[in-house]
Description:
The structure is a single chain. The chain is 71% helix and 0% strand. By secondary structure, the chain is mainly α. The protein has a domain at 62-197: Orthogonal Bundle (Tetracycline Repressor, domain 2), CATH 1.10.357. The longest helix has 35 residues, at 2-36. The radius of gyration is 20 Å and the shape is globular.
Amino acid sequence: MMTVMRNKSNKSSAQSRKEATHERIVEVAARAIRRSGYDGMGVADIMKEAGLTHGGFYAHFASRDALLAEAGDRAGAESVALAAGIAAAAPAGEALQRIMEAYLSDEHLGAIETGCPIAALGSEMPRQAPEVRHAATIRIKEMIDLLARQMPDWGQPEAHERAMMLVCGLVGTAVIARAVDDPKLSKTLRLAAMKQLLPSGATT
Length: 204
């Protein structure tokens, strides 16, 4: 009886350590792909940054693409959760404006490795494995749905369409604002996007 309980405890402890290690690898990879691109860091680099040996990788992931898919999913989930938190804390009618302000802020543009993975990796996604693209697609749909729920006419087909265009506009603006080497132009691009993309009636 005591032996069985001890064995169960040891097994549970080992499983807990493995889960914690798995989480650490995914967390490191989610930052790394946004910072350096899908091909910017290899498995060995990610494992080293996580404080682990390369040899332990396949105890956690079936392939490199499996890690990229999980890392991309984690990055997308973080982005959606951040936007949802901003929406929840915003005064009535101001959720969209607050989300847009945060997305187009200096802080978000400067924090590539912790920011929106679509803005950081969008141009690379068509060349990735199906599971990597699928993970990104799920999170993009979640972001669209989140923004649609903040629309003044939520529930109407037009609200969902505007949310889709808003996501496209925000991501595109972030990409171009990061690309230019003129800080004034970067700021002007973002101000113009705020003015043109904010749906009528979305603010109080």
